[in-house]
Structures are given as structure tokens and as C-alpha cells.
Amino acid sequence: MKTFKIKLIAFLAIIAFVSISCNNDDNDSQQTAQTILSIAKANPDLSSLVAALEKADLAATLNSSGSYTVFAPNNKAFSAFLSANGYANLDAVPVAALKEILLNHVLNTKVKSSDITTGYVKTMAKGNASASNTISMYLEKNTGVDINGGKANGGATVTTADIEASNGVIHLVDGVIGLPTIVNHAVANKNFTTLVTALSYNSASGFVGILSGTASSPFTVFAPTNTAFTSFLTETGFSGLSAIPANVLETTLKYHVVAGANVQSTSLTNGQVVNTFASQSFTIGLTGGAKITDTNNRVSNIIATDVQCSNGIIHVIDKVLLPKF
């Protein structure tokens, strides 16, 4: 019996030692987990990103504790970005501009690919339109993930997802993601294809150029969905956008735009009269949900708010607003 007790004690001691060793191994593994910056530095194809982060004084941020998502452009993407914007090299990019571009690739939360759904998220970048509301990013989940409509629209596509880091996650992308304008965001979201077509129809008024630029910006755009346009055509009896007289379409589009203001949803008040780019106004109502009453006493619901762009902000509405002609 005494021999059995000795063997039992020895066995328990071995189990305890193995358990402690495993725990120590786990702790060591956690302690040696690499940060986002460390992983980027170890990848030769991300050397331009690392150089950009260091130049913009953001390297320390992505080397610190936290929970970030980084959409990381490769070297080829950075070369294309420099060429497209007329920069001879990375040193030629102004630091302030570079910092905002890089922050436009970072979310202040960890989002794995399995957590992504089609819709808007907030980056850490700020454009010129707002001092407080950060730039929105549109993620479209298909077989993969497109960002802001993909490379053709100034965005990118995820090429490798879910590279785990101690302070978040990295998704490799094939393009440098530019700060999206109102037009970029409208093009990226398939719910606005009719609006984009309408903006392009009356090319003489230059709407696409106006809402892509900074002159008269910031803009606040109340953007009707495709369904809203379909209902509008039925209501007005036009067979399609091409059947709408140019002056009617132009005035209607201008009636959805406020020039010179980035009006966030928190600034809307009940009974507020909003003056538009069409030199006509509409009224905000907040009772029973945010809505707009146009000059023809028609009511449109505001169904999504605060899509922040570099040159303004978008609020989504479910009915086309109709001005006086």
C-alpha cells in the first residue's frame, strides 16, 4: 500500500508539471503573438505599406494593444496609387494626405471575414467635410468582399482574408482605397444605380463632376433608392429616365442636394426647413421616425443616415422628392 501511495504521488506530480508546462507554453504563445505592424514588416510584399505607416507616424498605433481591422494594400497597389496621382514616390505624398489615406484602411474594431455583411462601416479617416464624423466604407459581401465598389471605383477587393494578429486582423487587398466622394459611394451601392444613371443623364449640368469634387462642398445628399425611382416614374407617368425633360430632371436632382453643409442626422430637428440646391425647400419631420415633406406635400422616409464621404454626407430616402416646376 505504501508503494502504491508513492507511485500515486509521483503520477500526480508529473500531471501537475505537464499542466504547468502547457499553461506556460500558452502564456508564451500569447506573449509572442505578433502585432499588425510586425506581421506587415515580415511580409516583403507589404514593405510600401510599412514605409507609409512610418512616414505618417501610424506605425506605433498598429504596434500597440487594441482591436483593429486593417485592409492592407500590397506593393503593386501602392505603385499604382502613386502613378495615378502623379507622385514620383512615397516621399512626394504630403504627410497629412497620406495619413488620412492610410486611416481609411483601418477600422477601430476587429472584423473577421465571417463577420462582414453587405453595408457600411466606419473607418478611422476624416475627409474635409466633417471634423467629427469619420469616413464610411461600403463592404459588399459576395463570394469575396469588395470595398467601395472595387478598384474601378477607387476601392479594392480582399485577396487574402483573416490574418490574425495580437491586436486585430489583417485583410490583404489589391488596391489603395481612396477617400470616397459622394459619387464613389453612390456607385458602390447597387441600391443607387438609378440615381447614378440619373446624375449622368443630364451631363450638361455636370452633376457627377460637382458631387465628385470639392467646389461648393460639403454637400448633403438625400439619396432615393432604385425602388423610390421606380415608384416616381409610375407616379409621374414617365416611361423612363430618358423620357423626363432635362430641366425637370435637373431641378428634381438639385432638390435632393444641400450645398455648403455636411448635415448629420443628429443636427436634424422637427419642423426644420431645409433649403436646397434647387432654390426650393422641404421640411424635416421627426415624429414617428425621420421623414421629409416636400413642396408638393408628399412624404418620404429617411431610411438610413450618415454615410460620410470625403466631400459630404448621404442620407437614404424611400421616395423621390418632387419640387415645383
From TrEMBL:
The keyword Transit peptide does not apply. Residues 1-23 form the signal peptide. Transmembrane segments: none annotated. It comes from the Bacteria. SUPFAM superfamilies: FAS1 domain. InterPro entries: Adhesion/Biosynth-related, FAS1_dom_sf, FAS1_domain. Residues 33-177, 179-321 form the FAS1 domain. It holds the Pfam family Fasciclin. Keywords: Signal. The keyword Signal applies. This is Fasciclin domain-containing protein. It comes from Flavobacterium ginsenosidimutans. The lineage of its organism: Bacteria, Pseudomonadati, Bacteroidota, Flavobacteriia, Flavobacteriales.
